[in-house]
Amino acid sequence: MGHDRFQQPAGAALRSHQKTVAGLHLGDLLTDVDRPASMTLAAGPLTVDFSRMLGDPTTLHLLADLAAELDVPRQLAAMASGAPVNTTEGRAALHTALRASATPPILVAGQDVLPDVARTAARVSDFVEAVATGARPGSSGTRITDVIFIGIGGSDLGPRMVAAATRQHHTRQVLAHFIANVDPAELDAVLPRLDPSTTLVVVISKTFTTVETLANAAAARAWLVEGVGETALSHHLAAVTTAIDQAAAFGVPADAVFGFHDWVGGRFSLSSAVGIGIEFAIGRTGMRALREGMRAVDTALLDDPAPQNAALLLGMLDVWYAQYFRAVSKVVVPYSQDLALLPSHLQQLQMESNGKSVTADGDPVSWPTSPVVWGAPGTNGQHAFFQLLHQGTHLVPVDLIGIRSTIGNERAELLQANLLAQAAALALGRTASALETAGVDPALVPHKVMPGNRPSTLIWLPDLSPHSVGALIALYEHATAAAGFAWGVDPFDQWGVERGKELASALLPAVTGGPVPHGTDAATVASLAYLRGY
Ligand code: F6P
Asked: Can you tell me the distance from the alpha carbon of 77 to that of 90, in angstroms, rounded to the nearest whole number?
């Protein structure tokens, strides 16, 4: 399906439907008391309220039809079955296997992957428990008190975010320190505060080639050697990687290396051994609950018919707003400080998956793909960018995340009131006549008019338990894959990040005073000159 990807019957039907929707206003639509119930869906423990979207129940059905026309449900099922849906790398994308029940088998290259997944998960749990309880002490025999997790991208963002989100469920046995940036400011702010003899360093890298991670790992290793000596190093190192030999060469003992398969994409990997930092935070039971929450949404994805499939429709909504409303960004606003890192995780999950301009077959797209994903927690965002959301010239769909269990605390109730108020203000706006009726100074009326009809999706979690947080992550994993399949891209590769890595390696000698590579562009030459002070 080439350039006419969205001109087929379902796409064309949506285009004409959009013309009808464009003439509607949420202020009118939300007078219908039956609308919320007819546009709210469940996904595991989550409640996904689409009633403030641009459109109506017919829109959701037409989006489901478009998904079917673009073969999205079949590709999602193929993904969960172990088919090589990561077409440019010839791999499966089997993150669902990481939290699947032991049966039925899931085959990759004719081999059931589930026994190995279970073995690795058990090894990680046993290791974490042994370290956290002191059964596996540091080289001096003293219990490990601090664990440094060194990784970046998918080897950091998801685990760091889930560890923060599940704060109220931490076992508090060790202190976790997540390090990602190669900027010394991050690691060097942590090391001086820790005692090497009671510190474990975990290097997390799918490839064990990411230069930022290797540079930080080398610095942490040197710090350990200085503190406990080379011979004691093995008591203070662990690794999570597909490159087992590289980890061994780094000095990690075999029983502290935890592998995972190349069919686990970095940004989809937090339910694998990459989530070891989560398990240090919430323990074996918490990690099991996280995976159970993810599995509940995996099941809903595969079982729920498209018009009632929350994850599928959440992804198709990105297509709806990008294709039919030309929205170029969307904002994620969790009304929970513990979910403050969710936007950062979703930036990689969604933009590294779908920020592409050729299809999986290599043909240039003639349609928009991933929106720019950004966000910050509420209520902070209200004092930063909500002015633009309410009165700006851009349509920016909003994903709102609400946590139901925070009632009972006066400030938490204020948080909830703000969540609902913002959703209403975005949808309803405020007309000039309403302002005049309210007696607003006529000179100010034009400045206070709010157009409204600004759409949002409200995703409710019952609480911030590992189970609920896991469900939220899986919801977005599947929405991302669904949108990617709809756009016809490969949601699981990331060729666009390779060139920057190559250029950085080529320029490093010039930054440190060596010759500037021949053919370097003028701006880089000038910047190098400035950097080097001449
Ligand atoms: O951002 C590019 C990327 O390859 C991500 O896909 C990945 O999560 C990250 O770098 C880290 O890669 P690794 O886990 O191999 O160090």
From this structure: 17
Cis ω for the linkage preceding 104 (within 30 of 0): yes
Q: pLDDT tens string for the chain (534 positions)? A: 667 899 999 999 999 999 999 999 999 999 999 999 999 999 999 999 999 999 999 999 999 999 999 999 999 999 999 999 999 999 999 999 999 999 999 999 999 999 999 999 999 999 999 999 999 999 999 999 999 999 999 999 999 999 999 999 999 999 999 999 999 999 999 999 999 999 999 999 999 999 999 999 999 999 999 999 999 999 999 999 999 999 999 999 999 999 999 999 999 999 999 999 999 999 999 999 999 999 999 999 999 999 999 999 999 999 999 999 999 999 999 999 999 999 999 999 999 999 999 999 999 999 999 999 999 999 999 999 999 999 999 999 999 999 998 667 899 999 999 999 999 999 999 999 999 999 999 999 999 999 999 999 999 999 999 999 999 999 999 999 999 999 999 999 999 999 999 999 999 999 998 999 999 999 999 999 999 987
Residues 484 and 479: their CA atoms lie apart, in Å, by 9
The CA 66 to ligand 1 mean position distance, Å, reads: 32
* Atom 1, ligand 1: residue with shortest CA distance: 153
Query: Residue 311: which domain range?
Result: 2-90+307-487
Q: Token digits for 440?
A: 């607003």
Residues with CB under 6 A from ligand 1: 152-155, 205-207, 210, 213, 266-267, 352, 494, 497
Catalytic residue among 3, 394, 447, 501: 501
Pairing type for strands 372-375 and 329-334 reads parallel
My answer on whether 415 and 319 are in the same domain is: yes
Question: Ligand 1, residues 210, 267, 347: which to mutate, most atoms within 8 A of Cβ?
Answer: 210
Cβ burial of 13 (10 Å; 0-12, 13-18, 19+) is middle
Residue 397 lies in a domain: yes
For the question of residue 19 being annotated catalytic, the response is no
Residue 30: what are its φ and ψ, rounded to 5°?
-85, 15
For residues 257 and 244, what is the distance between their CA atoms, to the nearest angstrom?
Answer: 7
Ligand 1 center to residue 269 CA distance, Å? 10
Q: Which of 86, 155, 160 to mutate to test the pocket of ligand 1 (most atoms within 8 A of CB)?
A: 155
Give this prediction's pTM: 0.98
Q: What is the CA(280)–ligand 1 centre distance, in A?
A: 22
Residue nearest ligand 1's atom 3 by CA: 153
CATH of the domain at 226: 3.40.50.10490
